[in-house]
Amino acid sequence: MIELESHLEGQWKKGTGKKSTLINPTTGVAVAQTSTEGLDFASALSWSREVGGAALRGLTFAERGALLKQMSKVLHEARDELIEASIVNAGTTRSDSKFDIDGATGTLAYYAGLGKKLGDRTHLVEGEGEQLTRSPRFWGHHVLTPRRGVAVHVNAFNFPAWGFAEKAACAILAGMPAITKPATATAMVAERAVEIVVQAGILPEGALQLVCGSTGDLLDLLGPQDVLAFTGSASTAAQLRERRNFLDTNTRVNVEADSLNAAILGPGTAEGSPTFELFLKDVTREMTQKAGQKCTAIRRAFVPRALYDAAAQAIGAKLARISVGNPRNEAVRMGALVSRAQFDGVREGLAQLLAEAKPLYDGRNQALVDADPAVAACAQPVLLGTTDPVGARVLHDVEVFGPVSTLMPYDNEVQAFELIRRGQGSLVASVYSADPAFTARAALELADSHGRVHAISPDVASLHTGHGNVMPHSLHGGPGRAGGGEELGGLRALGFYHRRSAVQASTAALDALAASATPLTY
Ligand code: NAP
User: Which residue lies with its CA nearest to atom 16 of ligand 1?
Assistant: First the structure.
């Protein structure tokens, strides 16, 4: 069996002691093992801070961008191999595996382009500065310098390639070394991706390290210049935030957690209209892409009450055409969940939702293609519905991380917005309407409780980037239960890895400082 290793201080290292086993979720066969027991994380942190940090800070933005470009290139060249690892280790179809891997290379390439634009400088200045006293010779300016610590990236199981790459791209471009830690269950993909980058000799020593398995005491050792970017469940995030050293030293933490994302079909939409069809297509895709294991997936779909039955039937008919099973079988449209534990979690969550909703389409009795239902972590899609969304509580509160969504009718737009906000802060809401005035109202009503509002009208039907698709240009992260974090958003991402400081000095000194800095504009 493959033994995954961590890459620390420039070497591949095996842990000792008890190993975690990675399973092929389609076949139930063990595919790899890993352990981090006994690894010296204190020394690895020093290596990042002292060796990697110094090397990256010594490069210009354009040079760091060039590193990202090479990372994107070598990972793209290894696309087929990474897709294979994803099929084996994550149970994803070829198409879903590509979604993760192309997301990774695309995000690296995007940040490579931003590095090129930022040019031959090493730090950033904000705005024009301001005169502080009566004399025009004494001014204040804000400068952004890379934090002199290490960025620890803890990722969720569902996007092992993209999760690694999107965080690493932003840290490296900012001039901060990273230690990436994939979720153990799907670590094969991230481990191979890091190995490809290491073998290509792209990054300076210490710029990127990998922890494959448990974090051990790594997080206890983080200090004031370090940052933690975490993606995963709200419960793990809550445990991590409480760490004594984070409180004592104000270690900067960014959390991307779970989310009850919504889609709303605008009032006045006609059954069978292009807008109606766009809504149906997206709800179905969001339920089934990556078997619903996307943090951005539509969990609650709202329609005008008059369209509730028609939407239920139409989505149900689309879901009935989704074949579920072994991702290697070309007839299969939806692969496995990540593990049998996740399968049990989806069933438990579904049972909770069923207390307030009834199945409008229930695929649970549909036969699996080429997979043993007693072994495979394959969950068929279930569309739930309630005609009383106002009286519901659990439906607005429990995230089932699988191919499950709830359809709900609304009576007027004010009520619809209020119901959507009951998600208590989500990553994304999508709005389907041919009426620009409604779309604009909805965007402003929903922006405060969502990291992103994605509005789709027939004129952008073939252009839009997708409800669940995280574009590096736009912010990713939501308020409240979604974690309160912010990632990506173009250059906005660099803020997390920089320290903003005010510099108050003579105009001559500030002119000298500005000469080696790029003005930060969005
Ligand atoms: P999880 O169980 O919270 O695990 C996430 C990561 O945290 C994994 O790498 C895990 O490592 C690590 N971890 C768990 N306990 C830890 C601890 N005590 N100390 C240090 N690290 C710890 O979440 P998941 O099951 O992988 O992912 C599913 C959840 O993530 C869903 O709720 C989904 O909504 C959310 N998610 C959110 C986003 C977003 O961008 N907002 C994106 C994707 C997923 P091990 O695997 O080694 O335990």
Answer: 236
CA-based angle 110:495:100, to the nearest 5? 35
402 lines ligand 1 (CB under 6 A): no
Cα–Cα distance for residue pair 151/302, rounded to 1 Å: 39
What is the DSSP track for 358-427? EEEEEGGGSPPBSS-TTT------EEEE-S-TTT-SGGGT----SSEEEEEEESSHHHHHHHHHTTSSEE
Contacts of 417 (CB under 8 A, 6+ apart): 442, 445, 446
Q: Tell me the CA distances in angstroms from 372 to 99, 289, 320, 329, 375, one per residue in order.
A: 26, 21, 20, 13, 5
Q: HSE-up of 61 (CA within 13 Å, CB side)?
A: 25
Other Cβ atoms within 10 Å of 460 Cβ, number: 11
Cα-to-centroid distance, 320 and ligand 1 (Å): 31
pLDDT digits (tens, 9 = 90+) for 147-199: 999 999 999 999 999 999 999 999 999 999 999 999 999 999 999 999 999 99
Which residues, in sequence order, are CB contacts of 120 under 8 Å at separation 6+? 60, 61, 62
pLDDT by residue (tens digit) across 419-439?
A: 999 999 999 999 999 999 999
Q: Tokens 């800070």 appear where?
A: 57
Task: Indicate whether this model's pTM tops 0.85.
Answer: yes
295 is catalytic: yes
Q: What is the rounded end-to-end Cα distance, in angstroms, of the chain?
A: 48
233 pocket-lining for ligand 1 (C-beta < 6 Å):
yes
In sequence order, which residues have a C-beta less than 8 Å from that of residue 154 and are 6 or more positions away? 181, 215, 228, 229, 230, 231, 232, 240
